[in-house]
Structures are given as structure tokens and as C-alpha cells.
Amino acid sequence: MSPTAQRPDALHPGAGGRATARPTLEEVAALAGVGRGTVSRVINGSPRVSAKAREAVQAAIAELGYVPNRAARTLVTSRTDSIALVVPEAETRLFSEPYFSDIISGVSAELAETDMQLLLILVRNQRERDRLSAYLTAQRVDGVLVVSVHRDDPLPGLLESLEIPSVLAGRRGDLEPLSYVHADNAGGARMAVRHLLRRGCAQVATLTGPLDMEVAQARLGGYRRALEEAGHAYDEELVGLADFTEEGGRIAMRELLSRRPELDGVFCASDVMAAGAMQVLRAAGRRIPDDVAVIGFDDSIVARHTDPPMTSVRQPIEEMGRTMARLLLDEIHERGRARRQVVLATELIVRDSA
Fold first, then answer.
1. Phi, psi of 13 (to 5 degrees)
2. Burial (Cβ within 10 Å: 0-12, 13-18, ≥19) of residue 211
3. Could you read off the pLDDT of 58-114 as tens digits, one per residue?
4. What kind of architecture, by CATH, is found in domain 3-77?
5. Architecture of domain 185-314
């Protein structure tokens, strides 16, 4: 058998159809007029390449018919070309709350022009947590994104110890050592409560998220600060503990009404909870916003489809997903670089509920 028949992938057609050696990375670099490292970064999807250089490399690849040897690259670099997006929540929350779909959309959009494969992993119990731990320890992915960060979740600590490139949506606390992206949660909550007070609400309640999450603590802190700045005492009877779900919003709203029936404003730490609270208020005969004004947080599609349409604090959720993916790609391509923290601005979107 001829050498060509033995190794059909080792040759490529040259001028006049003559078989020549398979094009190399160095040949692509020479034709593009760039260094070998720049070609490698373009092939690996690194964002740290100028548009001009990227176009030159892509044109050279097309002209030469260069095909990266992915198997060899994996052996040399230990890269898997995959990223895990971990959601430590039940699938009911994943599919019922727009926050998660918007994060996934942003991450996917940022990875669309790279060779990275996105793996969605739900962690709902200890067995799945143990399985994920073994998967990550075996270095089956190049990096990890974590959404819905709880204070006592062991996953971020595992990622630290394994030194896997990682980015969190949120943080465990002020001293979070991992890279993270989140919205200005305290500032957004403060903005919402100040709006309720300015429109004349005298008894402003709040529905919190799970208080083992820094995001929920921050929004509760913003609520408290706005009250104190306006000369209103913080009253724990006006705080309804909930869990970011619609049913949790309904339960907490019923309890608030039973304790403080005179309340005339409610800041909810998510749109989904606010939708549940509005159902309870209507069932109790309270007009929105005439008797009770309601504000949510997220400005998700839920806010635009309640009756009346919901005033909400907008956080740029898709941009959070995009930013998380960008930070993670940087950490993958430049191992050992300093961790980064990004805080995105929030905005109050006023609609009929307040």
C-alpha cells in the first residue's frame, strides 16, 4: 500500500492537484504575517487577538486548507475545549425562572464564535454533587461557570483547590477569591424602596430571597438602607422570608398581610416572587397600586406580563452571562492571571404596579 493510502490525512493538494505535505501552523503564520502564538490563539478562540490579525489568520487557514489536529492539541495542552455551566438548583427553577435562561443565552452567545462546547450540569442532591466533584477532579472541562451561589455550597471551594478557571454569577461574600460577575444588588434595591417612599408609601415591606445567598442579603441590605436614609425604622415584621420562587412569594405575602395588614408598598427581591405576591394581594381585595404598590427585581419577561405591568429593577442578565464567559475564556487562555470582579449597573423600570 502506498504512503498516501496509509495516511490520507497527511497530504493535501498543491498546485495542479499534486499531493503535498499537510499545511502546518507555521505556514499559516507565515502567510498571515503573524506569529505562531497569534495563530494558536485564533484557533483556540481566544478573545485577545485584534480583529485585523484574526481576519488575516482566518484567510490564511482558508487558503491553505489548514485543519487543526485537535487530538494532538489535546494531548499537548490537556485542553478539552469544553466549559461546564453548573446550576445547583432543581430543574423546576431552571425552567420556570427567566433569570437562568437569560444567563444561558448570554453565555452561549459569547461562546458562539469559539470552539468551546457548553455543558449544562444541574446539581440537585449529594449524589450529583459527588459525581460532579469526580468529573471536575478528572479535569474533564477547561473551565466552570457557576450560577446561583449559596454560601455553604462546597463547589466554589473545590474549584479553588483544583485551580480550575472559574467564574461565579454572584459571590459568597465580600472576600470572594474567585472571579465573579453580578449586578449592583444593594443599589438596585435601595433605588426601588426610595421610589416607593417618594410615591407616599408609609409601610414598605420586602420579600427576600434565601438568606444563605449573598445576592439576597445585598438586596435586603439595600432595602434597609433606603428606609434608614428616609428616617424610617427597620421593622422585621415587614420582612417576609422567601426563596426566589413564585410559590415562595405567595406564602410570604400571605404571612406579611396577616402580620401587617396596613402595609402599602412591597419590594420583592425577584420578579417571580413579585408575581406571586400580586396574586395574593388581588385575592385579598387589595388594588395595585392604589392600595399596595409593588416592585420586583430582574425586569424579566414576567414583569411585562403581570396585571398591572410590574415596576422592576433591571439587571442586565444576558450581559452578565456574556461577561462571565469572557472572563472565563481569559482565565483559560492565560492560566494564573489575577481573578476579576465585575459589578454591572441596575436601573429602575417604572410601570403601572408602582
1. -70, 135
2. middle
3. 888 888 887 766 544 544 446 778 999 999 888 888 888 899 999 999 999 999 888
4. Orthogonal Bundle (1.10)
5. 3-Layer(aba) Sandwich (3.40)
- Which of 162 and 215 is assigned the larger pLDDT? 215
* Range of lowest pLDDT (106-110, 149-153, 210-214): 149-153
Bridge partners of 168? Answer: 146, 180
Q: How far apart are CA 30 and CA 12, in angstroms?
A: 18
Query: Which band of pLDDT confidence, cut at 50, 70 and 90, is reported for residue 14?
Result: very low
CA distance 27 to 33: 10
Q: How far apart are CA 294 and CA 353, in angstroms?
A: 5
**Which pLDDT value is given to residue 5?**
33
Q: Can 82-183+318-344 and 185-314 be said to share one CATH topology?
A: yes
Q: In what order do the strands lie in the sheet with 265-268?
A: 239-241, 204-208, 265-268, 293-298, 311-314, 347-349
pLDDT of residue 90: 81
The pair phi, psi for residue 19, each rounded to 5°, is -70, 130
The residue assigned the cell 466552570 is: 144
Residue 204: CB atoms within 10 Å = 25
Helix, strand or coil for residue 328? Answer: helix
Give the DSSP H/E element, type plus range, for residue 241: strand 239-241
Domain spans, the chain: 3-77, 82-183+318-344, 185-314
- The whole-number average pLDDT for the span 165-192 is 94
Specify the DSSP element, H or E, that contains 147: strand 143-147
- What are the beta bridge partners of residue 242? none
Annotate 166-222 with DSSP letters as a single string: EEEES-SSTT--SEEEEE-HHHHHHHHHHHHHHTT-SSEEEEE--TTSHHHHHHHHH
Helix, strand, coil % in the chain, rounded to nearest 5: 45, 15, 35
All three cell numbers of 110, joined, read: 459569547
CA–CA separation, 10 and 20 (whole Å): 9
Which string of DSSP letters, residue by residue, matches 258-277? HH-TT--EEEESSHHHHHHH
